[in-house]
Amino acid sequence: MRVKIYLNRDICNKCKLCVDYCPTSTFVLESEEIKVREERCIYCKSCEVLCPKKAIRIALLDEGLTIEVHRVL
Ligand code: SF4
Ligand code: SF4
C-alpha cells in the first residue's frame, strides 16, 4: 500500500495533535517542524478528521486495484 500525505504547512499551527495521535508515528516533530514518514502510514485517515486546521489530506496511490461486481440473479 502506497500512501501520499499532503500536509499544508501554510495553515498547520503545529498543535502536535497528529504527532501525538497517529498510531504509527507517521508524524514526527523535529526542530519545530512536523516531519512526515509516509512509509509508516496505514491509511486509517484518522488524522484528516482530527486535524483542527484541516491541514492533512491522505491519498492512496496503489495502482492496479480492481473491483469486482457480482450480480446475484
Ligand atoms: S494536527 Fe493539523 S494543525 Fe496540528 S500539527 Fe498536525 S497538521 Fe498541524
Ligand atoms: S492516516 Fe492514520 S496512520 Fe496515516 S498518518 Fe493519519 S493517523 Fe497516521
Description:
With about 70 residues, the chain is an alpha+beta fold. It has a single domain (about 5-60), classed as 2-Layer Sandwich (Alpha-Beta Plaits). About 15% of the residues lie in helices and about 25% in strands. The chain has 2 helices and 4 strands; from the N terminus they run βαββαβ. The strands form 2 sheets. It has a two-stranded antiparallel sheet. The mean pLDDT is about 90. The structure holds iron/sulfur cluster (2 copies). One iron/sulfur cluster binds near residues 26, 41 and 46.
List the helices and strands and how they pair.
Blueprint: E1 3-7, H1 17-21, E2 27-30, E3 33-36, H2 46-50, E4 56-60
Antiparallel strand pairs: 1-4, 2-3
The site of one iron/sulfur cluster (SF4) has 12 residues, from helix 2.
Question: What is the ordering of alpha helices and beta strands?
Answer: EHEEHE
The molecules bound to the chains, other than polymers, are:
iron/sulfur cluster
Largest sheet: 2 strands, antiparallel
Order the strands across the largest sheet as they lie in space.
1-4
CATH T-level topology: Alpha-Beta Plaits
CATH architecture: 2-Layer Sandwich
What percentage of residues falls in helices of 4 or more residues? 10-25%
The domain count comes to 1
Strand content: 15-25%
Q: Per the principal axes of the C-alpha atoms, what is the gross shape?
A: elongated
Helix segment tally: 2
Total E-strand runs: 4
Average residue-wise pLDDT: 90
* Poorly predicted spans: none
Q: Structural class of the helix and strand makeup? A: alpha+beta
Q: What's the CATH first level? A: Alpha Beta
